[in-house]
Amino acid sequence: MNPTAHIKLEGNPLDIAELTAAIRSTKNGGECVFIGTVRDNHQGKVVTHLEFEAYEPMAIRELTRIADLASAQFKLAEVLIHHRIGTVYPGEAAIVIVVTAPHRNQLFDACKMIIDQLKETVPIWKKEVYTDGASWVQAHP
Amino acid sequence: MNPTAHIKLEGNPLDIAELTAAIRSTKNGGECVFIGTVRDNHQGKVVTHLEFEAYEPMAIRELTRIADLASAQFKLAEVLIHHRIGTVYPGEAAIVIVVTAPHRNQLFDACKMIIDQLKETVPIWKKEVYTDGASWVQAHP
Amino acid sequence: MKILVFGAAREVIGKGEFEWIPIGNELTVGELKHALSLEYPGLKKLKSLSIAVNEEYASEERRLDRDDVIALIPPVSGG
Amino acid sequence: MKILVFGAAREVIGKGEFEWIPIGNELTVGELKHALSLEYPGLKKLKSLSIAVNEEYASEERRLDRDDVIALIPPVSGG
């Protein structure tokens, strides 16, 4: 793994303060963060919680590949991607992405690219559990 | 002021956990954050600290205008912009921008637009203090 | 050969992992998908089904070895 | 009329606020800038100098009233 990529599938709640501080430095003034929070509704249904499942070794591989690609393409200093697995409740963060660079120009495109690619290829699956049932979300492709 | 814009010039350190949580909600799953951290060097000089000065009422007006523009253009739910004034040390955040929306598509462009415009028009000035002197940064235009 | 199954595909097949004994000596990813969909018709109801071989996405033409680790990847929904 | 001065411009003028008595009855933003730069030649060394009138950026043609609040805005560097 590229030493500048910090990738984790996490069973416990994500600590935003800790994760956003993890790769901040006095050398890299620009930092862009994406936080994906679990919503309490989907297409009119009340979501009580999500169940995330991952093919863990392959998910780590894919996330690392995406982080390395973004680092190279957008000249990032460091990349952090932590994704929840298991049960996640509305209001909790399902994912936190942090990218840093000496200057801000490409941070936003980098962060967007990472979340877009993650949603397309990383083997993680989300089951939405409603008050009256549940369903696997089949998002990509 | 648009009720969805949260604007402040802050004399004390910015609390990232508090600010990123301030406008998060179970209705708005996507959140993009920009954090600008003070670097400890500039063009080869060691920066001991920065002094930020603002034309406060006009800065608040301009920040609100930019937040409202971004909200409308990118269909944001809420916008938060907190900028430090006074003395800020390397490693501290000089600015935190948070934007939220039900979906993530335009969050990154919105956050980028806000920081780009802020740097162009908002009447805030930065004096860099070095070990051997100081100078006003004349960035824009 | 060992086949791992995830998400909606796991619920179709009813287990997260099973052994598959291919008929004949050689098998491609495409042929495996076809054989599995005959045995588990519910797989056809998935929006898509990709195959990973040794933790990487594999093309339909890819030939499989006996000791490959195969995974059935229904549409992903992380993030 | 009251003039507020910030950043590098404040250091040129030596104070953050002063009263300016225009000569004649009418004065535009452009004319004010010209008059100030004669009195404070150091202002010409700034990379740029904008004028805000009542907390908004004003064009060179804008006419000033006696009770307007004027601010001298050197190049900004927030963020």
How would you describe what is shown here?
- The complex is a heterotetramer, with 2 copies of chain A (about 140 residues) and 2 copies of chain C (about 80 residues).
- With about 140 residues, chain A is an alpha+beta fold.
- Chain A contains 3 helices and 9 strands, in the order βαβββαβββαββ.
- In chain A, the strands form 2 sheets. In chain A, strands 3, 4, 6, 8 and 9 form a 5-stranded antiparallel β-sheet that branches. A 4-stranded mixed β-sheet of chain A has the order 1-5-7-2, sandwiched between helices.
- The longest helix of chain A is centred in the middle third of the chain and has 19 residues, at about 55-75.
- Chain A is elongated.
- The model of chain A has no long low-confidence stretch (mean pLDDT about 95).
- With about 80 residues, chain C is of the alpha+beta class.
- Chain C has one domain (about 1-75): Roll (Ubiquitin-like (UB roll)), CATH 3.10.20.
- Chain C is about 25% helix and about 25% strand.
- Chain C has a 5-stranded mixed β-sheet.
- In chain C, strand 3 and strand 4 form a beta hairpin.
- Chain C starts with a strand and ends in a 6-residue tail after the last strand.
- The model of chain C has no long low-confidence stretch (mean pLDDT about 95).
- The chains are: A alpha+beta (about 140), C alpha+beta (about 80).
- The interface between A and B is medium-sized, with 32 and 32 residues.
